[in-house]
Write a structure and sequence with these properties.
The structure holds 2 protein chains of 2 kinds.
Chain A (H helix, E strand, L loop, with lengths): L6 H34 L2 H32 L3 H33 L7 H27 L2 H31 L4 H33 L27
Helix pairs in contact in A: 1-2, 1-3, 1-4, 2-3, 3-6, 4-5, 4-6, 5-6
Chain B lengths: L13 H10 L1 H18 L3 H17 L15 H4 L1 H9 L4 E5 L4 E4 L1 H7 L15 H11 L5 E7 L5 E10 L3 H6 L4 E8 L1 H36 L6 H33 L7 E4 H19 L2 E5 L6 E4 L1 H18 L5 E9 L2 E8 L21 H6 L6 H11 L3 E5 L6 E8 L8
Parallel strand pairs in B: 7-9
Antiparallel strand pairs in B: 1-2, 1-5, 3-4, 4-5, 6-8, 9-10, 10-12, 11-12
Helix pairs in contact in B: 2-3, 9-10, 10-14, 11-12, 12-14
Classes of the chains: A mainly alpha, B alpha+beta.
């Protein structure tokens, strides 16, 4: 960040970044906790998560207000303007991530009392591990304005998509095996989808960082490995093992 | 938006005089113009005019310019100015950061720089440590609250349990009077060893009881049959005992693998740092696996660089990685009759690639192979003596080395497992 004659402007920009970092920390925590609540079927933790999501929403409002105020007062240009626009975009993505984590927590409550093989949730855990690594990396990249690291995150999202595809098939198999599984398997499928969406938001943030640092948009097609939306389900030959 | 001028003082001399004239050119021109107008209106004699002009010129050269404001001094770590604070922080041995009461970084020690990787003086601590509980505690302590202990778990890149100790630093009576500490000291104390040991026991019992139950049930069934209906059937006894031996062997391998996995997990947060040589490791593994490949009729084709490939690692664990990958290649790619083992080194990365020409792995299973007890085909894996832990062990070893395991299996083209390691020893944390 170059220094400005008006010290207060530097302070404004820095405190925007600080608020984003804080929001990022909260989002990371919500995602990690919602998954561990899902694995341990911890209703209390789920309720705590639902309550914490409000803090994220409040932070997003504050960031928005501060960003608009800064634009109005300082008339920023070039990298300063991108800085503010980026903080708006990142805060939007983080707020969505918080919502998705909250949705997982709600499903933990809905799943109460249904039996569930622990092996299935293990797949969601594996996915969450990858997503958390992505989220941490992209937030570090934002704090350090590191476009290379952000690009790395952007490229790695394929792994999460592939894992989601695999999990999707496995859950379908369970549902076909025994209709009583459909209830929890559907909830688990939505949880997996939420985790996958969180990964997508991480790549959005990576795109924003690229734009913030280099001033150009990432326009290439991202490597996609999620084929579930185009895969027909073949009931006849599905191996029920 | 302009940058601050750098206050370089100009040397005296003709250049300096010209600069002065240039700087004052507007004022000089105006003065001369006024003089000219005056001389026309009041018809002042020429020598007075020239005298006036020279006076203005000399005045312009002599009157001192206002000194440009010196630029703000570049931000300096407190430890550079105050050796005692720096030395005390270093003496903590654990990552320690001294913050202002507002939560911006004031000084830090080497351990903290290593842990966070991107600390910059003057930045808010939240750029490096985002944990909400810790930030909250820093705020409270900075506002005059009591010191706090916050325990948290870092899940990536490897699981770590950390206790953040946040305490106020009171320097003098004035601080105490207005109730605001001068600084906040943040220390990160690693609890991973203790917590891991606790959890290892729980995990071990859970995994072992679940996975040992099947072979144990089979064993019990055969023992009961041998004691009862098949008491005097020598032919069945021989067959049963053989099956029992296989099951017992499987159980013992399972216990070995579980213990091994636990041991690796126990040390996963400590990156190994002894120098090893990759090619030599792979060669020795190939020697030990030669009987197996002969028995299965699989030809092993190797391709190694002609120079040694040094890296930092744990020899026993890397042997385990190579052994697992090559053994898998031989067992599951047996139908291809050939396994390629390649070691390459470029751009500070060493790669051990094992390619088999077997039936390959269906794409939906590929991303999940490293999960514990995940099997593509349960029966097939058990027949081949697999415990379902081999690739999980490989993954954890690679993660301890901060490396990666890549799996590719395009349909009909066999499977490639590649272990990627940093050879320069300073790979990014990912």
């Amino acid at each position: 960040m170059t220094e400005h004659i008006v010290k207060q402007f530097d302070e404004d920009l820095k405190s925007l970044s600080e608020m984003i970092a804080e929001m990022g920390g909260l989002a990371e925590k919500l995602v990690a906790e919602s998954i561990s609540a899902l694995l341990r079927r911890d209703i209390n933790a789920a309720q705590r998560i639902i309550a914490t999501d409000r803090t994220i929403d409040r932070l997003q409002h504050q960031i928005e207000e501060k960003a608009v105020l800064t634009i109005a007062k300082r008339q920023p240009m070039a990298v300063d303007l991108r800085e503010i626009v980026a903080s708006l975009r990142v805060s939007n993505d983080l707020e969505r991530i918080g919502d998705l984590a909250k949705n997982i927590a709600k499903r933990v409550i809905a799943l109460e009392g249904q039996l569930q093989p622990p092996k299935l949730a293990g797949g969601v855990d594996h996915m969450a591990e990858l997503v958390l690594a992505q989220l941490k990396k992209v937030l570090d990249a934002y704090a350090r304005r590191d476009a290379a690291r952000a690009l790395d995150v952007w490229k790695r999202d394929g792994e999460i998509d592939a894992l989601y595809t695999s999990l999707f098939r496995e859950l379908l198999t369970y549902m076909m095996e025994d209709p009583r599984n459909i209830g929890f398997a559907t909830h688990l499928l939505f949880c997996a989808k939420n985790v996958e969406r969180i990964g997508d938001h991480a790549t959005n943030i990576a795109e924003t960082i690229h734009y913030l640092v280099l001033g150009e948009l990432l326009t290439d097609e991202r490597p996609k490995l999620d084929h579930t939306s185009t895969t027909p389900v073949d009931y006849g030959t599905e191996d029920a093992g | 938006m302009a940058r601050l001028n750098s206050g370089v003082h100009k040397p005296l001399g003709p250049v300096f005089l010209l600069d002065r004239l240039r700087a004052n050119r507007a004022a000089l021109l105006a003065a001369f113009a006024v003089l000219a107008v005056f001389s026309l209106i009041f018809s002042i004699p020429l020598w007075v005019l020239i005298l006036g002009g020279v006076t203005v010129l000399v005045a312009a050269l002599i009157v001192p310019l206002p000194r440009p404001e010196p630029p703000p001094a570049p931000w300096e770590l407190e430890s550079d100015k105050d050796p005692l604070a720096g030395a005390l922080l270093e003496a903590l041995l654990e990552p320690g950061v001294l913050l202002t009461s507002r939560g911006t970084i004031y000084a830090y020690n080497d351990a903290a720089a290593n842990t966070f990787g991107g600390l910059r003086g003057g930045d808010p601590i939240s750029f490096s440590l985002r944990l909400p509980e810790v930030l909250e505690a820093v705020r409270e302590v900075g506002a005059g609250g009591q010191g706090r202990l916050v325990e948290y778990v870092e899940r990536v890149p490897v699981e770590r349990w950390i206790e953040a100790r946040i305490g106020p630093v009171w320097l003098d009576q004035a601080d105490r009077a207005d109730g605001l500490p001068k600084y906040v000291l943040l220390i990160l104390h690693d609890l991973t060893n203790i917590r891991r040991a606790e959890r290892m026991r729980v995990d071990f019992v859970a995994n072992a009881s679940h996975e040992l139950r099947t072979p144990l049930a089979a064993l019990l069934g055969f023992i009961e049959t041998l004691q009862g209906p098949a008491k005097n059937d020598t032919e069945a006894r021989g067959r049963f005992l053989e099956i029992m031996r296989t099951q017992a062997n499987r159980m013992s391998r399972l216990v070995d693998d579980l213990l091994h996995l636990s041991r690796i997990e126990q040390r996963e947060h400590i990156r190994p740092d002894s120098p090893v040589e990759i090619v030599e490791i792979v060669r020795s593994v190939l020697d030990s696996l030669a009987p197996l490949s002969r028995e299965r009729g699989v030809e092993i084709v190797t391709s190694f660089p002609d120079h040694p490939v040094p890296a930092l690692g744990d020899r026993d664990e890397l042997i385990r990685v190579a052994e697992n990958l090559i053994e898998n290649g031989i067992k599951y790619g047996q139908s291809g009759k050939r396994v390629d083992v390649t070691v390459t080194a470029d751009n500070g990365k060493a790669r051990i690639a094992v390619h088999d020409y077997g039936p390959g792995i269906p794409p939906e299973h590929v991303p999940r192979l490293t999960e514990r007890f995940y099997r593509v085909d349960v029966g097939d894996s058990r027949d081949k003596g697999g415990t379902g832990l081999g690739l999980a062990i490989v993954k954890h070893i690679m993660s301890r080395h901060r490396g990666r395991l890549l799996i590719e299996s395009p349909p009909g083209k066999g499977t490639t497992f590649t272990a990627v390691l940093d050879t320069d020893g300073q790979g990014k944390e990912d």
